[in-house]
Structures are given as C-alpha cells and as structure tokens.
Write a structure and sequence with these properties.
heterodimer; A: alpha+beta; 8-stranded mixed beta sheet; B: about 180 residues; 4 helices; 8 strands; about 30% helix; globular
Chain lengths: ~180, ~180
C-alpha cells in the first residue's frame, strides 16, 4: 500500500523480500550509529542480515512472523515486525518497529503499526506486546494512541549510554 | 554439590552434560504430560532434545548461559537455567526452573535457584528476571522468599487447559 506522509512524502509499505537485506542493514546501522532507543549496539554485517532475512522469510511462510518495510524512493526507511510465540503463547505476538531518523514524526510508524496489527489478526494473533525504553516518550505516546496499555516496568533493564534505565512493557488485545 | 532434601533424599546438583539429553527429555515430557505450569504443550523427540542440549552447551561455553540439573539416583528430577541477554541487556539473565512432580515441596527448587543465581553472578549477570503463571501460587511464594519482586502482569498471556490466564514477571537485582 502507498500513502502520503505528513510531510508530503510518498511512502510505500510492503512485505519484506530477500533482496531487502542491504536496505535493512543500512537502516539498522543508521539507528545503531545514532544510538537510538534500540537494543542492539554493535553494527550488523551484510552477511548476518542476509541470514536473518532468510530466516524471517521461512518464518513468514510458516505464519510465525510478519515483516513489513516502509520505503521512500526505493530506500527502506522503516520496518515493523511481529513474531508469534509458541506453545501456550501461540496467540501472542511481539512487535518491533523502527523508523529512520529523518522520517520520524510524520506518521510512518503509526501507519506501519496499523498495517501489521491488521495482518496479525488474520493469522490468529490475539495479543500484541512490545517493550520500549522508558525515556522514549514519543514512542510511548504513539503506542498509547494506538490502544496499547502499560502492563509493567522493569528497572535497570537496559544499559544505554553508560546508564541503567527502565524498560516499559505494553500490550494490546486484538482478538 | 550434594544435599539432603526435606524428605531425606540425597540430591546432586551439577552442570548439564550432553549425555543428559535422554533423561532430560524424559523429565520435560513428564512435565508436558502432567500439563503443569510450563509453556510447552507438545512432547519433544529425541533428536530435538539432543539439538537443544547441544545448543545449551554451546551457550554455556560462551558464558551466555548457566544450566544445572538436579539428579536423584541417576534420574533428573529438576533443572534450572539462566540465559544471558545481548546488547544493551547483556547484564540481564532470564531464569527458568522446573521440578519433577513427586519431588516438589522438599526444597529442591530453592537450592537449584540459589545455585544458578550464584553462578550467573560470576558471568557478570546483574538482573535476573522470570515469568510465572499467575495461578502458580507455590512458585510465586518461593520466588518472593528468594527476593524476587513483581514488575509486570500480562492478562490473557497464556492459554492453559483451554482458558486464558495471566502471566506475572518478577525480577531480582543481584549485581
């Protein structure tokens, strides 16, 4: 699907493909360089990212994952994925969403999340959970707007820029 | 190490070894059959268990995991493991523990937990987290006694015996 961002840019949202591994690697490494509110703190290699994408595609086939990317002029500037849990948690999906620095605050994260929640329902996921850095107020506001509720907070869960900080946990029932 | 349980049984606690996979599988499948408060609801086959044990040993070697078993007369009657997270969560370990049905309430879980926590500190783990079925009152009482505090509660997190139930998350700072 296509949509126009708040800043008037034409953004495409589509399923991930194998060839996206280069674009995804670039996106992840730009976030790592920025030291954004993400867990990873070491750059990812092309080889590693290709291996991951191949695994994702396998999981997508088995309906254990959904993975979408947002592109602008052919470049990946955002991604969202939901990973389905197993066994007694098979109805639960954990969500991760990323938007490149200069594309934030124009509705791309929101559009990505709405789209993936819609698709998660179709594969039988009923409960979506996510984690976020407590200091990431922008993200918290967005998740709340989309109907997520806080269900916990873990002190000193993360070490970011040399300091321990809390993680906030949120959920949304979509079943 | 060895100790005498409350019921007078001599229990050995030691690191997991590759040859344990047969006994470990019997143990885990006994829990699955009992349909106790564990996530797994499908029995595991021999090959799957061997692969799992090998992966665990690999992680132990890389100091990313501590994995102990409790043995009574050559039978595995309990297991406890802590897996280290990565990146900005490298100081966090996720704890899992289980004790065989007829060996509960005699102190084996407590000794396993104390031992696995002690060893995980040596790997630099500072924060230990665990999840527990909210209806598993004896487990929650034990974790509280050992200094764990609740930090999250997720409604409908699990489907157990056909019903949705909540999961609690607890933590203990050991750094």
């Amino acid at each position: 699907m296509d949509f126009i961002s708040k800043k008037g840019r034409k953004i495409e949202i589509r399923e991930i493909q194998e060839k996206d591994y280069v674009g995804l690697k670039n996106l992840m490494n730009s976030l790592i360089r920025e030291n954004a509110y993400i867990l990873r703190n070491t750059p990812i290699t092309e080889e590693e990212q290709l291996k991951k994408v191949k695994r994702y595609l396998e999981e997508i086939r088995k309906k254990e994952r959904i993975y979408l990317v947002a592109t602008h002029k052919g470049k990946i500037i955002g991604s969202v994925n939901v990973e389905r849990k197993k066994f007694k948690e098979k109805h639960v999906g954990t969500l991760g969403v990323f938007v490149k620095k200069n594309f934030r605050n124009e509705g791309i994260g929101k559009a990505l999340m709405k789209e993936i929640i819609k698709r998660s329902k179709k594969i039988g996921i009923k409960l979506i959970t996510l984690d976020l850095f407590k200091v990431n107020k922008m993200a918290f506001i967005l998740y709340k707007k989309l109907g997520f509720k806080k269900y916990g907070e873990l002190p000193k869960a993360l070490k970011h820029k040399g300091k321990y900080m809390s993680m906030v946990l949120m959920y949304k029932w979509i079943g | 190490m060895e100790f005498i349980s409350k019921k007078g049984r001599k229990i050995e606690i030691r690191e997991v070894q590759e040859k344990d996979y047969v006994e470990l599988r019997n143990f885990i499948n006994s829990l699955v059959k009992e349909n106790t408060y564990i996530l797994k609801n499908l029995p595991i086959d021999k090959e799957g268990e061997l692969n799992y044990v090998r992966r665990c040993l690999e992680e132990v070697k890389r100091r990313e995991r501590v994995h102990l078993v409790a043995v009574y007369k050559n039978k595995i009657v309990g297991a406890a493991e802590i897996g280290r997270k990565r990146f900005k969560e490298k100081h966090v370990g996720v704890l899992g523990i289980s004790v065989r049905k007829n060996y509960r309430n005699e102190g084996i879980g407590k000794i396993l937990m104390n031992e696995v926590v002690k060893r995980s500190k040596k790997l630099g783990i500072k924060l230990i987290i665990l999840d527990v079925f909210k209806i598993n009152k004896p487990a929650i009482a034990l974790y509280k006694k050992l200094g764990f505090k609740k930090y999250a509660e997720l409604p409908k997190a699990l489907k157990h015996k056909g019903r949705y139930i909540s999961a609690l998350s607890m933590y203990r700072w050991v750094g």
